[in-house]
């Protein structure tokens, strides 16, 4: 009888063990970190980070999730991941990595060939091959795509080419997802530049310069008019000293007046 009870207890213990969720198995912190670093994009991305470190903890939630955190050599956070070790499943992550030198060498001829034959690129600059020596490639970790810079001075262009796999190793099914004009100023930057230019033109007018020559602490303001001219005002405290209308296209002071 006693042996039967022992056998029954043993059977129940085995059954209970079988019913325990598989994610309740024991994993060490290093086990889990290794699981993450073996998967894309960590398997290649961490090669581009010097002296990186990682730490992980068991969240204890109902899904068997561990959280893994990564830092660079300066202690700045560079990535995190949520993984279920029992399934080896990387559920989600956030990581911004560059490409390795080997990946860049492999991607460059493919990306260049795609850009040089793309109709949108040709429509903008004619023959892209004419700019081969001033074309530069970089991997954009935020966009998970390749950025192509074509240096044309003030008219430089930036193209973003994304492949289906969204990692540097994936080089099939490219798509041009963005065309940028890096030297185009924001409206505020443009307005500030035009205001400064109008003020300079007005100030160099001989008669306006003569009025302001002996005035210290004067200030200026410039406003764009409906006809495209700029009205420039020079003031001392609340007193207006002189106003001028400036044509930026010709670089001339069209008219001016002083009280």
Description:
The chain is about 30% helix and about 30% strand. It has helices at about 1-20, 30-35, 40-45, 100-115, 120-125, 185-205, 205-210, and strands at about 55-60, 65-70, 75-85, 90-95, 135-140, 145-150, 155-160, 175-180, 220-225, 230-235, 240-245, 250-255. The strands form three sheets. A four-stranded antiparallel sheet has the order 1-2-3-4, with helices on one face. Strands 5-6-7-8 form a four-stranded antiparallel sheet, covered by helices on one side. A hairpin with a 6-residue loop joins strand 6 (about 145-150) and strand 7. The relative contact order is 0.07.
Tally of structural domains = 3
The proportion of strand residues reads 25-35%
**H/E order of the elements?**
HHHEEEEHHEEEEHHEEEE
Shape category: elongated
Report the sheet with the most strands, covering strand number, pairing sense and barrel closure: 4 strands, antiparallel
Strand pairing plus helix content: what structural class? Answer: alpha+beta
Distance between the termini: 120 Å
- Indicate the multimeric state: single chain
- Uncertain segments are 5-9, 12-24
- What is the gyration radius calculated from CA atoms? 33 Å
Mean pLDDT: 88
Helix content: 25-40%
What is the count of β-strands? 12
Layout of helices and strands:
Layout: H1 2-19, H2 29-37, H3 42-45, E1 53-58, E2 66-71, E3 77-84, E4 89-95, H4 101-117, H5 119-125, E5 135-140, E6 145-150, E7 157-162, E8 175-180, H6 187-203, H7 206-212, E9 219-224, E10 230-236, E11 239-247, E12 252-257
Antiparallel strand pairs: 1-2, 2-3, 3-4, 5-6, 6-7, 7-8, 9-10, 10-11, 11-12
């Amino acid at each position: 009888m006693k042996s039967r009870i022992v056998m029954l207890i043993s059977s129940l213990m085995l059954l209970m063990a079988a019913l325990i969720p598989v994610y309740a198995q024991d994993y060490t912190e290093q086990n889990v970190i290794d699981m993450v670093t073996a998967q894309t994009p960590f398997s290649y991305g961490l090669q581009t980070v010097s002296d990186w470190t990682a730490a992980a903890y068991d969240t204890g939630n109902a899904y068997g999730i561990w959280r893994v955190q990564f830092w660079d050599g300066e202690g700045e956070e560079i990535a995190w991941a949520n993984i279920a070790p029992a399934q080896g499943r990387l559920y989600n992550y956030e990581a911004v990595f560059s490409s390795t030198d080997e990946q860049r060498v492999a991607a460059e001829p493919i990306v260049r060939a795609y850009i040089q034959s793309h109709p949108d690129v040709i429509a903008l600059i004619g023959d892209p091959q004419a700019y081969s020596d001033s074309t530069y490639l970089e991997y954009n970790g935020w966009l998970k795509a390749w950025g192509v810079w074509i240096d044309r001075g003030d008219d430089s262009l930036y193209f973003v080419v994304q492949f289906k796999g969204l990692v540097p190793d994936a080089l099939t099914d490219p798509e041009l997802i963005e065309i940028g004009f890096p030297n185009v100023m924001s409206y505020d930057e443009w307005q500030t530049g035009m205001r400064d230019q109008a003020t300079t033109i007005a100030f160099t007018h001989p008669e306006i310069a003569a009025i302001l020559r002996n005035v210290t602490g004067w200030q200026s303001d410039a406003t764009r008019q409906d006809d495209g001219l700029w009205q420039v005002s020079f003031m001392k405290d609340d007193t207006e000293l002189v106003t001028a209308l400036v044509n930026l296209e010709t670089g001339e002071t069209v008219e001016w007046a002083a009280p």
